[in-house]
Structure prediction request, 351 residues.
Amino acid sequence: MKVLAAAAVAFAALGTAACGDNKSSTGSDSSAPPAKKTVKVGLAFDIGGRGDKSFNDSAAAGLDRVKSDLNLEVKDLAAVAGESENDKYSRLKLLCDGGFNPVIAVGFVYDGADAKNGPLARAAKDCPKTKFAVVDGGTKADNIADLTFAEEQGSYLVGVAAALKTKKGTVGFIGGCQVDLIKKFEAGFTAGAKATKADIKVLTNYLSTPAESCKGFNDPAGGKTAASGMFDQGADIVYAAAGGSGTGVFEAAKDKGGLAIGVDSDQYNTVTDAALKPVIMTSMLKRVDNAVFNFVKDFADGNFKGGATIFDLKADGVGYATSGGQVDDIKAKLDAAKADIVSGKVTVPTK
Prediction:
């Protein structure tokens, strides 16, 4: 009897240890969620920086989304008009020297005039253990991921929208800087408009050149003047691929009784002045937020991938916005145009 009693006590004790408090042998609570991994991310903005309501803010939004999965320590620095390539290099180097890894360069300005020897190439060489990403860049190195987009495809869709909505048969395109990247926006927009209405007239204006440090991405006054001129020439819809200068285009549309198309972010939702919302017909969405989110998540999971990744319509990298309801009546036609591009039936030009 004493043996049976001792066995019963031992069995009861084992049962209590095994399941009584759901704790492991180390005393930790196995039901608690795993601790979030901490990642130090450096973000080098393009001209305009955080608060441009467009390109840069879309990159920042990607990091904001990652915060639900990771503990992020973020340091962001912005480019300024007129700075040298050495200034851009120093910004990237400052971030990697500060222990930030990965470092994300937002914008082609970090390629420099010669991508093989530009600011990003130098930083990647001097910080070989740091992983970099560049949005819209072309710098090649084993520790650089190029996050590129099919801007011409999204611009084609808003070109279709402009052609379907114009009442005057004339629309406009304003680019922030006369570089190949922004010419992709123009090419796609013009192709979409003319595919929909062959006799449509497309006015074009660029706010700056590389020689002017592409200052046209942060020149709302210049954007307003350029757009006002287009409305005076008979345009009733103007597409602005000009970053922070788009606010000026929206103001011109409001003053002239026209409509505008935003870029990168859904600018109907990001514009600060609510009085401008009614003139924003749609926006060409460039999902920099998706690209940044995926890059940081992959890095944290140990899945860094160098080289180019293209975010197109099929990958939900570009698209168009429906906020405000002004394209609801043509959505079926826009989605049909999208399907033609995704299937390969339509190839959108980049020049």
DSSP finds eleven helices and twelve strands in the chain. The chain has two domains: 38-149, 151-285+321-343.
